[in-house]
Structures are given as structure tokens and as C-alpha cells.
Design goal:
Largest sheet: 2 strands, antiparallel
Distance between the termini: 13 Å
Number of domains: 1
Structural class: alpha+beta
Strand order of the largest sheet: 1-2
Number of strands: 2
Order of helices and strands: HEEHH
Strand content: 15-25%
Length: 51
């Protein structure tokens, strides 16, 4: 997923391990994707489309 984001934006994406099934995508410190709200992990292309 980080490679997909980097390819789409030209910026380095940093993956940070969490616990308890928490999965978020943040941009400039703001949460722009939350598995808890969507009910699933981003599918191919969804994460990159957020940027």
C-alpha cells in the first residue's frame, strides 16, 4: 500500500504498526481513512485516490 501511495503522489508513505485491528490513513496528521468507519481495508487504488 505504501508503494501505491508513493507512486500516485511522489511522496514517501510511512506505515506505522498498530494493535487491535485499528487501521487508519492520515495525511498531514489528519485521519482520512478509518477501517472502523468503512468496515474494510482499502482495496487497490482506494488509498492512493485519497491523496
Amino acid at each position: 500500500m505504501s508503494a501505491e501511495i508513493e507512486q500516485a503522489t511522489g511522496k514517501q508513505a510511512k506505515l506505522v504498526a498498530g494493535a487491535g485491528g485499528i487501521f487508519e490513513i492520515r495525511k498531514d496528521g489528519e485521519v482520512i481513512w478509518k477501517k472502523q468507519h468503512s468496515g474494510h481495508f482499502p482495496k487497490t487504488g482506494e488509498a492512493a485516490a485519497l491523496f
